[in-house]
Amino acid sequence: MQKRKTDQVTVSDLPFMDLVTSTKAAGNGGSSEKKDGEEASKVPDMVSPIRVQRKKLLILDLNGLLADINQDDRNSHLSHGKVRGKLVFKRPYCDDFLRFCISNFELGIWSSRLKANTDAVVDILMKDLKQHLLFCWDSSKCTATGHYTVENKNKPLVLKELNKLWNKEEPDLPRQQGGPHTAIFPYSYSYKNDKDDSLGPGGDLRLYLENLATADDVQRYVEDHPFGQLQITERNPNWKLYAQILDGRVP
């Protein structure tokens, strides 16, 4: 989703990752065996970090990226928790992926869910790893549009305006001013895909982030290596709706 600049706004119902160069130096980490996504009883050592001069800020969404959150009670026995009547199915290799992200990036979470629900999902997915988050944003940081999503006419369409990162809403965030090509939109995860390995060692998303962690220029790398869903443009069949949002019009 665009709003004046292509990098400044994302539609909340797309799995979302924002990538920004940080000014903090990379830290040291321990080692870890490959995991299958099941939670360990203790927080394991971090994955050995990739050698980089400075870490980049990585912002992750929850639903569709780290988990599939739905109301499919027929398979509740496969879920890892429940929040407000919705089941949380953790994505395979989620634990290992989060350790990788914490070791190699400055990590934040941004969800369009209410704070109580966001915190509950983070507790299920991250447990003690959440102490390593720089921040955890919820719907209070999103912008209401007055419209509803194309996929669900009962779900409000809100925006994640990335310029809030640059406006010092969180003064301790390590970041530089953003520009085009600082976000990617992976395809949404479904728990029914039992062969999904995107987050695991050798998985497509994991490999993408490994390469990006060492890239000298984030924007150039993202521009030269498109990943996942493309940006919404005038060619999108629902462009009329998005054009209204661009113009600031409400129903």
From TrEMBL:
<feature type="region of interest" description="Disordered">
    <location>
        <begin position="22"/>
        <end position="43"/>
    </location>
</feature>
<feature type="compositionally biased region" description="Basic and acidic residues">
    <location>
        <begin position="32"/>
        <end position="42"/>
    </location>
</feature>
<dbReference type="InterPro" id="IPR004274">
    <property type="entry name" value="FCP1_dom"/>
</dbReference>
<dbReference type="InterPro" id="IPR050365">
    <property type="entry name" value="TIM50"/>
</dbReference>
<dbReference type="InterPro" id="IPR036412">
    <property type="entry name" value="HAD-like_sf"/>
</dbReference>
<comment type="subunit">
    <text>Component of the TIM23 complex.</text>
</comment>
<keyword id="KW-0653">Protein transport</keyword>
<keyword id="KW-0811">Translocation</keyword>
<dbReference type="GO" id="GO:0005744">
    <property type="term" value="C:TIM23 mitochondrial import inner membrane translocase complex"/>
</dbReference>
<keyword id="KW-0496">Mitochondrion</keyword>
<dbReference type="Pfam" id="PF03031">
    <property type="entry name" value="NIF"/>
</dbReference>
<feature type="domain" description="FCP1 homology">
    <location>
        <begin position="51"/>
        <end position="212"/>
    </location>
</feature>
<keyword id="KW-0813">Transport</keyword>
<comment type="similarity">
    <text>Belongs to the TIM50 family.</text>
</comment>
<protein>
    <recommendedName>
        <fullName>Mitochondrial import inner membrane translocase subunit TIM50</fullName>
    </recommendedName>
</protein>
<dbReference type="GO" id="GO:0015031">
    <property type="term" value="P:protein transport"/>
</dbReference>
<keyword id="KW-0809">Transit peptide</keyword>
<dbReference type="InterPro" id="IPR023214">
    <property type="entry name" value="HAD_sf"/>
</dbReference>
<comment type="function">
    <text>Essential component of the TIM23 complex, a complex that mediates the translocation of transit peptide-containing proteins across the mitochondrial inner membrane.</text>
</comment>
